[in-house]
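User: For a teaching handout, I'd like to show students what a predicted protein-ligand complex looks like in C-alpha cell form. I'll give you the sequence and the SMILES for 2-acetamido-2-deoxy-beta-D-glucopyranose. Please answer with just the structure.
Assistant: Understood, here is the input followed by the structure.
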Amino acid sequence: MAFENNNNNTKVTKLTHISQNLSLSTLWKSIAISGALLFLLHTFAFNHPHKMITHKLFAPLEFTFSSSEISTSSSSQTSREPPTNISHLLFVIVGSTKTWRYRRGYIEPWWRPNITRGHVFLEKPPGRDLLPWPQQSPPFIVNKDSSVTNAKFKTQIRLFQSLHESFNNANKDTRWFVIADDDTLFFLDNLVKALEQYDHKKHYYIGMNSENVWSNAIFGFDMGYGGGGYALSYPTVETLLKRMEDCIARYLGVYSDLLSFRCLADLGIDLTMNKGIHQIDLHGDISGLLSAHPQSPLISLHHFDVINPIFPAMSRQESVNHLMKTAKTDQSRILQQTICYQRGNNWSVSVSWGYSVHVYQSVLPRNYLKRPLETFRPWKNVRIPVYTFNTRRVTNDPCEMPLQFFFDSVAEDKNQSLVTTMYKVKTLGSLPPCLPNVNQSAGNISQVSVIAATMHKVGEGIECCDVEKASSSDTLEVKIRACHKDEVLA
Ligand SMILES: *[C@@H]1O[C@H](CO)[C@@H](O)[C@H](O)[C@H]1NC(C)=O
Ligand SMILES: *[C@@H]1O[C@H](CO)[C@@H](O)[C@H](O)[C@H]1NC(C)=O
Ligand SMILES: *[C@@H]1O[C@H](CO)[C@@H](O)[C@H](O)[C@H]1NC(C)=O
Ligand SMILES: *[C@@H]1O[C@H](CO)[C@@H](O)[C@H](O)[C@H]1NC(C)=O
Ligand SMILES: *[C@@H]1O[C@H](CO)[C@@H](O)[C@H](O)[C@H]1NC(C)=O
Ligand SMILES: *[C@@H]1O[C@H](CO)[C@@H](O)[C@H](O)[C@H]1NC(C)=O
C-alpha cells in the first residue's frame, strides 16, 4: 500500500508541475491518459501472478509453452511434459580412428545399446582393425571432409559438424545434446536425473569447470570443460548452430569447448554448473578426491589415460569396469560420502559408497574429512592456490591418515531393498596405532561391509551411519541410514 501511495503522489506532483506549462485541455488529456495507464498498471501488476509477468515481459528468449501451472482451467488440453528420460538425450562423442581401439573401453561400460541415443564421430572411415563395429559401441558417423589442413582448426570444426549432423538426426523427443570426449565415463541415471531438473525448452548450457585454478584462469572459470562433458538444451543448439560459422571465424584455433563457451557467451547463454561433472585435470592417484566427493550425484569422470588406475592392483580398464559394478545397483549413491564415528574406539569412518572406506584412529570433524586428501598432483606445476577446492596434505601421522579400504564386491538383497558393498584393505598392517594404547588400533581390520537401502533419494541432503564391529574382529560393519532430526554428525 505504501508503495502505491508514493507512486501516486509522485505522479500527481509531476502532473501539477507540468500543468503550469500546458493548456487546460491538454492537461485533462494527460490526466486521463495517466490515470488510465495507472489503472492498467495496477490491474496488471496486482491481479496477475508475478510469474506470468516475468514470463511475458522479461523473458524474450524463452519459448512460449503451456505448462499446467499457467493454464489450470483447461486441464483437458494441457498435460504436464513427461519427465526427462534417457531417450531424450542425444550424445555427440567426437572420437578418432586412432584412439577408438582403447578409448571404447571407457564408453562401452556406460553405453546402453539400443537405449542410449547418439553417435561417435570419426574423422575417416574405420579401417579393418576396427571392423566389424562392435554392438556394444555407439554407432559411428564419419565427419564430412572439412578440407581444413590445420589440425587445431579441425577439432573445433569437427565438433560443430558433429553437432550439426546430430541436430539433423534429432527427433521430436530430443531435449538435450550431450557433448563429450571419447574418454568420458558417464553415470547415465545420474545425468538424466540432473537434466530433469532443468527446463529443456529454455536456453541451457550445463557443465563444470576444471579442478585447476590455473586452467580456469586461462580458459574460463565459467566454461564447461569438454572432457567432463556438457549438455546443451535443444533451443541452445538451435541458436548456436546459426552462429557457428561466425564463431569459428571469430575465435580461430581455440579448443572446441572454449569455442562453444565463447560462442554461447556471445549469445547471452551462460554456464549452469553442476557439481558431479568432473574434467579430472589431475595426475597420479585421484583416490583422495574420489573418497571425498562433494554431496552431489556423480555424473562423469574423465582422463583415465593420464591418471593412475583408480583401484589398487588393477589396470585402468579393469578399474573402470569395477567401478561400474556398483553403478549398476544404485547409481545415485556412488561416491557419496557418509561419515560416522565409533565412539568406543575414537574412530572416524568415511565411506565413499561403491569406491572406498577410510578408517581414522581419531575423531576428526566432518568439515575436515570433507576435504579430499591430496593424493594427486595438479595438471601443471603452478603456484598455489592450485585447486578450486580445499585439500588435506598426506602425512605420516597415524592419527590423521586413514587405513584405506577399496571396493571389492556388491550384493543386492532385492527382497529387503538392501545393498551390501564390501571393501578390502589396501595394505594390511600399514597403519601404526595412533596412541600407544593398542586396543584402540584399527590396524587389524581387513574388510568393511557397508549396508544401505537401495532406494536413495537424490537431493534429500546427507545421510548418517552407524559403525559396528562385526562378530569376526577383522570386519567392520557400517550401516547407512537416514539421519535423525537435527542429528549432529561430528
Ligand atoms: C521417455 O519418455 C517418453 C515420453 O516423452 C516415452 O514415450 C518413452 O517411452 C520414455 N522412454 C523411456 C526409456 O522411459
Ligand atoms: C539393437 O537393435 C538391433 C536392431 O533392432 C538388433 O539387431 C541388435 O541385436 C540390438 N542390439 C542389442 C545389443 O540389443
Ligand atoms: C577417546 O577420546 C577421549 C577424549 O580425548 C578419551 O578420554 C578416551 O580415553 C579415548 N578413548 C580411547 C579408547 O582411546
Ligand atoms: C525373496 O523372496 C522370495 C519370495 O518371497 C523368496 O523365494 C526368495 O528366497 C527371497 N530371496 C532372498 C534372497 O531372501
Ligand atoms: C585391552 O583389551 C583387553 C582385552 O579386551 C583388556 O583386558 C585390556 O584391559 C585392554 N587394555 C586397555 C588399555 O584398554
Ligand atoms: C592384531 O593382530 C595381531 C596378530 O594377529 C595381534 O597380536 C594383535 O593383538 C592384534 N591387535 C589388535 C588391536 O587386535
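For the handout, you might add this sentence: Confidence is low (pLDDT under 50) at residues 1-78.
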